[in-house]
Amino acid sequence: QVQLVESGGGLVHPGGSLRLSCAASGSISSIRALGWYYQAPEKQRKLIAFVSNDGTTRYGDSMKERFTISRDNAQNTVYLQMDSLKPEDTAVYYCHADIWGSTVGYWGQGTQVTVAS
Fold first, then answer.
1. How many C-beta neighbours within 10 Å does residue 23 have?
2. Using one digit for the tens of pLDDT, what is the confidence trace for 2-22?
3. Cross-sheet strand order for the sheet of 2-7
């Protein structure tokens, strides 16, 4: 079992920045990669980026230029730095742990990000 706890969401003005954090606990050795997804209202959940255990990163198509994923293996934490935020970035942001030998993985509870004036 892996537990994921996100933090750092909130209300931000357009053009602002936020940094999300996701702390992993439990069966850390089972984790193959940690990533971030977002789900806007009435939309499907989409990949933002993930970072593998060896530090390799991969970004989804929609936010690559404004968002940066990073990982602190010593703290078992993955971060998402979000810059130049836009109102259309408003969504619930979820942390995900990709597990060796599993196609399902684990999800955090999500953190709300609202971009508004």
1. 16
2. 999 999 999 999 999 999 999
3. 2-7, 18-26, 77-82, 67-72
